Amino acid sequence: MTRLNARILLAAALFPALSGQAAAAVGSTTLEELVVNSDVIVIGTADRVVDLLGTRVGVLRVEETLKGAPREEVFVLTEGTWMCEVTETVPGERVLLFLERHPWEGDWELYEQDAIDEDDAPFDWALRPGFGKALTELKGNEPLLRLAGEGCGQMPVRAVDGVEYAVLWMNKIRIPSRIETIAGSEKHAFIRSAQLQDLEEYVRALVDLMRKWRPELE
Predict the structure, then answer these.
(1) Buried b (16+ CB within 10 A) or exposed e, 23-60
(2) What are the pLDDT digits (tens) for 116-144?
């Protein structure tokens, strides 16, 4: 059994009792799966975007670490790897991020190329020669991360009447019905907002459960 399948089975077997019935909104993943499959979950503020030979890397200051080793900064690939993935770093924006290690970590030179086919779709990108060296100079020994859940792992934080909410796309992610949401956009009904505190408490409880029952999957 692969690590991914084991994680999904763990979520299915252990987490429903914690989360309650899933919300009815159709999504490509669940909040449980997002937590289980993330290597790092943090709340932080985007500091800057660095262009490394045509590849953008977002640098975010970490305020709270909900999963993974505590760190002051995270480095996030800010390039969508497929057409429907939304990956963006907006300096000054506060976000809840679900992140996973990039699978090319440590082997960047193998994927560097001199040019990209002009017929490729606009969202395609290529690593230029020297990217690996430039990346190491930027981040040191820290890992390069990417959004988990095919882009679902980025939830901007906004304040409504003095309460912090995280914005999520309900057509991409299903959340437990016990987590209440409010409208997140006047134009799109599938964009909703959940209280950041509710999401943080849910994530911490889930991570604690993982740590207790299956530490190897933490």
Answers:
(1) bebebebbbbbbbbbbebbbbbebeeebebeebbbbbb
(2) 555 544 445 677 888 889 999 999 999 99
DSSP 143: P
40 to 53, 71, 83: CA distances (angstroms): 26, 10, 24
pLDDT tens by residue, 156-198: 999 999 999 999 988 889 999 899 999 977 678 889 999 999 9
Half-sphere exposure of 155 (CA within 13 A, CB side): 32
User: Tokens 């790897």 label which residue?
Assistant: 81
For residue 69, with 0-12 CB atoms within 10 Å meaning exposed, 13-18 middle and 19 or more buried, which class applies?
exposed
Q: What is the pLDDT of residues 53-98, one digit of tens each?
A: 888 999 999 999 999 999 999 999 987 554 344 567 788 899 999 9
pLDDT band, very low/low/confident/very high, at 44 (cuts 50, 70, 90): very high
Distance of alpha carbon 107 from alpha carbon 94, whole angstroms: 31
Separation CA 74–CA 67 (nearest Å): 13
Output Rg (C-alpha) for the chain, integer angstroms: 18
**How many other C-beta atoms can be found within 10 angstroms of the C-beta atom of residue 202?**
22
Specify the pTM.
0.80
Question: Could you tell me the two tokens for 132?
Answer: 């690996």
Q: Are 169 and 151 in contact (CB under 8 A)?
A: no
Q: Would you kindly state where each structural domain of the chain is located, as residue ranges?
A: 1-38+150-213, 42-147
